[in-house]
Amino acid sequence: MIVANDNSCKGIVKNALLYKNPIFVSGMVIAPVVVMANNFFDAVTLVIAFSLITFFTLLMSSFVPKNIVYTVRIILYTIIGALVYVPSVIFLKYLMPEGVEALGIFFPLFITSSFIISRSETIFFLETKGKMFLDIIFCIIGYDAAVLLFAAIREILAFGTICGNIIGMPVEIAALQNPFGGFILLGLIAAVFRSILLFIKRVRQK
Predict the structure, then answer these.
(1) Is the pLDDT of residue 5 over 60?
(2) Which of 183, 35, 36, 165 lies closest to 98 in space, CA to CA?
(3) Can you tell me the distance from the alpha carbon of 36 to that of 41, in angstroms, rounded to the nearest whole number?
(4) Around Cβ 101, how many Cβ atoms within 10 Å?
(5) pLDDT surpassing 60 at residue 175
(6) What does the DSSP assignment read for the chain?
(7) How far apart are the C-alpha atoms of 145 and 29, rounded to whole Å?
(8) Is the sign of the CA dihedral 97, 163, 184, 115 positive or negative?
(9) Beta-bridge partner residues of 162
(10) Residue 2 belongs to a domain
(11) Total number of domains in the chain
(12) Which phi and psi angles does 128 have, rounded to 5°?
């Protein structure tokens, strides 16, 4: 198991980006990734939507008093997410209308994602406001970087293109274009990612 229990600023950044990466290690909010991120451009839309909703929802949720009953806190997180969703969807419809249309149901589902609840309940209550803010930023960056990397690999293998530009792949794996193929590819990339982290950890321990 990959664990890096370091609550310093450097440790928080390393955990968010690597050891507890939301996609490759924790496996959070992967449904929209395997469905939507089959090319780099769609992945960009996905990460912008995720980042907007998650950042402002987590930031505002951090001010919910800790002594409120757990069930009520979860409801408040959802309400906050819904309030953040409205201006976010208006902004993105103006910026990239076709991308928002393509996101479909996944955009509003971000407000109830396991990522928001898990970070709010298991991490942020243990951190100062400064470290919490740092955690939010780099967790989102870690998620976004993983999604973009996955989408780039998937587009190359499935379509023989990158950002829509043909790169002349000798073989295209059409099965990776559908969600089932995307799920398998994501699992393989995550396994390689974790293996690399474990290898680095073992090398450092010697």
Answers:
(1) no
(2) 36
(3) 10
(4) 11
(5) yes
(6) -------SHHHHHHIIIIIT-TTTTT--S-HHHHHH-SSHHHHHHHHHHHHHHHHHHHHHHTTS-TTS-HHHHHHHHHHHHHHHHHHHHHHHHHH-HHHHHHHTTHHHHGGG-HHHHHIIIIIGGGS-HHHHHHHHHHHHHHHHHHHHHHHHHHHHHHHSEETTEE---S---GGGGSHHHHHHHHHHHHHHHHHHHHHHHHHHH-
(7) 14
(8) negative
(9) 165
(10) no
(11) 1
(12) -75, 165
In a domain, 3, yes or no: no
Q: How far is Cα 125 from Cα 132, in angstroms, rounded to an integer?
A: 9
Q: Write the burial class of residue 59 (CB in 10 Å: 0-12 exposed, 13-18 middle, 19+ buried).
A: middle
Q: Does residue 146 fall inside a structural domain? A: yes
- For 43-98, write each residue's pLDDT tens digit: 998 899 889 988 898 888 888 887 888 888 888 888 998 899 888 888 888 888 88
Alpha carbons 119 and 76: distance in angstroms, whole number: 15
d(CA 82, CA 112): 9
- 187 has a pLDDT exceeding 90: yes
Residue 72: count of CB within 10 angstroms of its CB: 11
Q: How many CB atoms lie within 10 A of CB 203?
A: 8
Q: Which domain holds residue 196?
A: 9-205
Phi, psi of 119 (to 5 degrees): -65, -40
> Which residue in this structure is represented by tokens 């969807």?
89
pLDDT tens profile 103-130: 778 878 888 777 777 776 666 666 777 7
pTM across the whole model: 0.86
